[in-house]
Predict the structure.
Amino acid sequence: MSEHLRTALNLAASGVPVLPLRAGKVPFGNCRRCADAACGGRPNMKNPGSCACPGPCHAWAAATTDPEVINSGSWHRAWLRASAVAYHPGGAGLTVVDLDRADAMAWARDNLPTTQTVPTTRGEHWLYLGRMQSANGVRPGVDIKSTMAYARWLGFGTGTMTDLPDTVRALASSKPAPPRPALPAVTVPAPAGGGECRHRTPAYLERGIAMAEQRITEATSGVHNAVYRTFLAVLSTHGRCGCLTDAHVGRLFSAAQAKGESARHCTEAWANARTTLGV
């Protein structure tokens, strides 16, 4: 039995849903049936651990406390290749305040109640009893991981876990809106007769943009790739029709930034998608 599998089984026995991580702190998602959420994803997101695919493909939603699942054939092979163990804090009734910078840790010491603290590569995880909405970038160097998120298991740390304070809950509710990026110019050749899609109706375009926003919003892992693939799909369908406007691009960028992407990453992903397609 691998060390990661042993750790996972011990955590599961104490009620902590676990999943394996591969290199780069990325969940296993190699099942073709689940590529780009082709299986739908939503039922598994609503019922963590219910993924019926042959491997752990839904990040936090695949996390489970069932030892039979954890030690099953496909999961067992994943544990052998895993580089770390992850867990779903919200599924265990916990919230992790992820502090990635020295100034973030100093802020926490001055403003948050003392609790169980786990050292990380770049900072600390502060663990509280209670679940809440996850949110990235609530302060410089501060992320909140609870529901619909996963965190690396790095040991028990030190200190006694205390109840989730209102101070932390307020961070997610008062998170400032992401800055509006300077949108890249959408200069693509328009068809004869104007900017309307030559093969689609305006309603189809609106539905396509809405679906693209939803696809980005529902991404549970590999957000960078999900954003790029979504941009690629939109441009492949509408990039040569002259129908895309700055407002359409702005909606896609806003959806991506709400998932934690920076304006720079959005701009780069859009530019790379255009380069790939030659538009």
